[in-house]
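Before a colleague's protein record goes any further, I have to sign it off. Thanks in advance; the entry in question is below:
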Amino acid sequence: MILEIATLYVNASRQKKFEEDFSIARQYISSTKGFLSLALQKSIEQNNKYILLVEWEKIEDHLIGFRQSAIYTKWKELLHHYYDPFPVVEHYETVLEER
Protein backbone atom coordinates (compact mmCIF):
# COMPACT_ATOMS: atom_id res chain seq x y z
CA MET A 1 0.00 0.00 0.00
CA ILE A 2 1.18 3.51 -0.89
CA LEU A 3 0.05 6.65 0.90
CA GLU A 4 -0.15 9.83 -1.18
CA ILE A 5 -0.01 13.01 0.88
CA ALA A 6 -0.78 16.35 -0.75
CA THR A 7 -0.56 19.64 1.12
CA LEU A 8 -3.21 22.01 -0.22
CA TYR A 9 -3.48 25.75 0.39
CA VAL A 10 -6.86 27.23 -0.56
CA ASN A 11 -7.78 30.90 -0.69
CA ALA A 12 -9.66 31.62 2.56
CA SER A 13 -12.64 33.17 0.77
CA ARG A 14 -13.07 30.07 -1.44
CA GLN A 15 -12.85 27.26 1.12
CA LYS A 16 -16.57 26.47 1.26
CA LYS A 17 -16.79 26.18 -2.54
CA PHE A 18 -13.57 24.13 -2.61
CA GLU A 19 -15.02 21.66 -0.11
CA GLU A 20 -18.23 21.41 -2.16
CA ASP A 21 -16.30 20.80 -5.39
CA PHE A 22 -14.01 18.33 -3.67
CA SER A 23 -17.06 16.36 -2.62
CA ILE A 24 -17.92 16.06 -6.32
CA ALA A 25 -14.34 15.39 -7.46
CA ARG A 26 -13.82 12.49 -5.07
CA GLN A 27 -15.99 10.30 -7.32
CA TYR A 28 -13.35 10.63 -10.05
CA ILE A 29 -10.39 9.53 -7.99
CA SER A 30 -12.30 6.78 -6.18
CA SER A 31 -13.27 5.15 -9.48
CA THR A 32 -9.61 4.64 -10.41
CA LYS A 33 -8.18 1.11 -10.37
CA GLY A 34 -5.97 0.67 -7.31
CA PHE A 35 -7.68 3.37 -5.24
CA LEU A 36 -8.19 2.23 -1.64
CA SER A 37 -9.27 5.24 0.44
CA LEU A 38 -9.28 9.01 0.71
CA ALA A 39 -9.39 11.57 3.52
CA LEU A 40 -9.38 15.36 3.24
CA GLN A 41 -8.38 17.06 6.49
CA LYS A 42 -8.38 20.75 7.37
CA SER A 43 -5.75 22.30 9.60
CA ILE A 44 -6.90 23.65 12.94
CA GLU A 45 -3.94 26.02 13.24
CA GLN A 46 -3.86 27.31 9.67
CA ASN A 47 -7.38 27.87 8.35
CA ASN A 48 -6.56 27.71 4.63
CA LYS A 49 -4.39 24.56 4.81
CA TYR A 50 -5.64 21.05 4.03
CA ILE A 51 -3.99 17.69 3.62
CA LEU A 52 -5.25 15.08 1.22
CA LEU A 53 -4.46 11.48 2.15
CA VAL A 54 -5.03 8.86 -0.53
CA GLU A 55 -4.19 5.18 -0.20
CA TRP A 56 -3.26 3.34 -3.38
CA GLU A 57 -2.41 -0.30 -4.01
CA LYS A 58 0.69 0.73 -6.02
CA ILE A 59 2.33 4.04 -6.87
CA GLU A 60 1.63 3.37 -10.57
CA ASP A 61 -2.11 3.39 -9.82
CA HIS A 62 -1.74 7.06 -8.92
CA LEU A 63 0.98 8.26 -11.29
CA ILE A 64 -0.18 6.36 -14.38
CA GLY A 65 -3.69 5.01 -13.75
CA PHE A 66 -5.07 8.28 -12.37
CA ARG A 67 -2.80 11.10 -13.47
CA GLN A 68 -2.66 9.96 -17.10
CA SER A 69 -6.40 9.38 -17.41
CA ALA A 70 -9.32 11.40 -18.74
CA ILE A 71 -10.76 11.29 -15.22
CA TYR A 72 -7.77 13.32 -13.99
CA THR A 73 -8.66 16.06 -16.48
CA LYS A 74 -12.08 16.37 -14.82
CA TRP A 75 -10.42 16.40 -11.37
CA LYS A 76 -8.06 19.19 -12.46
CA GLU A 77 -10.87 21.28 -13.92
CA LEU A 78 -12.82 21.10 -10.66
CA LEU A 79 -9.99 21.64 -8.19
CA HIS A 80 -6.69 23.01 -9.46
CA HIS A 81 -7.80 26.64 -9.64
CA TYR A 82 -8.28 26.70 -5.84
CA TYR A 83 -4.61 26.10 -4.97
CA ASP A 84 -2.06 28.81 -4.21
CA PRO A 85 0.68 27.68 -4.33
CA PHE A 86 0.24 24.46 -6.26
CA PRO A 87 0.26 21.42 -3.94
CA VAL A 88 3.29 19.43 -2.97
CA VAL A 89 2.49 15.74 -3.47
CA GLU A 90 4.58 12.94 -1.97
CA HIS A 91 4.24 9.18 -1.68
CA TYR A 92 5.02 7.06 1.38
CA GLU A 93 5.21 3.39 2.20
CA THR A 94 4.73 1.96 5.69
CA VAL A 95 7.82 1.00 7.63
CA LEU A 96 6.13 0.44 11.00
CA GLU A 97 2.52 0.66 12.10
CA GLU A 98 0.72 0.13 15.38
CA ARG A 99 -2.97 0.68 16.10
User: Anything to note?
Assistant: The beta strands are 2-9, 35-42, 49-56, 88-93. Residues 2-93 form a domain with the Alpha-Beta Plaits fold (CATH 3.30.70.100). The chain has three helices and four strands. The CA atoms of residues 10 and 95 lie 31 Å apart.
